[in-house]
Amino acid sequence: MAPRPHWLFGDQLGPHFLDPGVPVVMVEARSAFARRRSHRAKAHLLLSAMRHRAAELGDRVRYVRAGTYREGLREAAGDARVTVSRPSSRAALRLVESMDRVEVLPDRGFLVSREEFAGWLEDRGGARLRLEDFYRWVRRSHDLLMDGGEPAGGRWNLDHDNREPPPRDRDDLGVPPPWRPHEDEIDEEVRRDLDRWEREGRVRFVGRDGPRLFPVTRREALSALRSFVAHRLPEFGRYEDAMLAGDPVMSHSLLSAPLNLGLLHPAECVERAERALRSGDAPLNSVEGFVRQIAGWREYVQQLYWHFGADYRQRNELRHHTRLPRWFLELDADAVRARCLSTVLAQVRDTGWTHHTPRLMVLGSHALQHGWDPAELTDWFHRCFVDGHDWVMAPNVVGMSQYADGGLMTTKPYTSAGAYIHRMSDLCDGCAYRPAERTGERACPYTTGYWSFVHRHRDLLAANHRTARAVRGLERLGNLPEVLALEEERGRRAP
């Protein structure tokens, strides 16, 4: 009997999602772009990756361009039964489960299966979900960075070694630049199609579509991985949280996009990093930091996305309902005077990417301080980042960034006054504001926003041992009324 066709989604593009000899169907649905106003570079990346994969598969694939997934599958497979690896989002899973002729197979894109995670939860007997516990379990069960039964180097967590501010005498880290691709005729075709769709009014985009910056093929993704491990991983660790205006990439891997397209498997990424450690080509703090991001945080977020349920993305424990302002929705960096926020917003506008610290401590912190609606912010991150997928952004924004789940995922809200940004970056240099000033025209929006946030949620924060100190600081603030009045006056204007 001939094997049934296998349906590949656009984030299942690596070889680990296919068995040998199985025929393939792929559906490029315009409805995926019509539903939300995505970043132009994200749309380009996804379509380029899908079309490149179809070109590689040749006669083995039936590639259909259609208005919706249902229409496309009907054209590609008719009434035949097809298989599909478990999709990564709830919406896609609902779609395939609603189609009688589609058989859903287990996912193939992560280290930890849902069944393994359920077993880990059962063994814990209801204990609180903590990243550190999960990460150590993954390390042990997959024998990652282990020396027998002990962690390599004798420590599980090297975060303390990975929080250095950037060098104060340089505009960049001085490491080799990241691997970058060369566009081809498929990229040109994608760009023409996107231009045409916009002209015809079928879709609307935000952001700029410059030269493609991220891999769209398996070969490109492996090149990017090899380049990172060889040239950038050694310096990754200690400056992992630092920011430089002139070096937005720092030593980060830029592998989130190919990982989330399914072009790389997380196992090969962490195993290659560990080989660099064992051969003496990268230090433990850098390798552990990289492994923690992929085998720890990425796996943790994916599991929590399913574990917390469909209603999780609507959680709003802090009761923040302010709509996102137009300048933020439009990525209008030129409307912003605060250099840190303007710089980061411009990076999103121009590339659809920033690393995790600007996401959390510049973009997310500003939203949290001003009470922006967490569901709307989640959608913004999903739409505006090239590596944005529902399973990624719902836990990261609702839980980590906005504390909208009331502490299910993290132990405290992540926000700070301008002093943190000043310490961890050069983004305050030449700014119209001063991080230490709380009142007056030069008062830093992050400093006034921080104290306003603490004041607004003082009862909640006072009851948390990790944030009670902030409330005590608020009580010693002699000019709090002036700070709050300034925040009220600034309102929704771009800072």
TrEMBL record:
Stored InterPro entries: Crypto/Photolyase_FAD-like_sf, PhrB-like, Rossmann-like_a/b/a_fold, UV-DNA_repair_photolyase
UniProt xrefs under Gene3D superfamilies: 1.25.40.80, Deoxyribodipyrimidine photolyase-related, DNA Cyclobutane Dipyrimidine Photolyase, subunit A, domain 3, HUPs
Q: Does the keyword Lyase apply?
A: yes
- UniProt feature coiled coil, ranges: none
Q: Which UniProt keywords apply?
A: Lyase
Q: What spans are recorded as compositionally biased (Basic and acidic residues)?
A: 157-173
Q: In Gene Ontology terms, what is one molecular function of this protein?
A: lyase activity
Question: Has UniProt tagged this entry with the keyword Methyltransferase?
Answer: no
| Chain segments carrying region Disordered | 150-183
Domain of life the protein comes from: Bacteria
Report the Pfam families cross-referenced here: DPRP (PF04244)
> What protein does this entry describe?
Deoxyribodipyrimidine photolyase-related protein
Organism, per UniProt?
Answer: Actinacidiphila glaucinigra
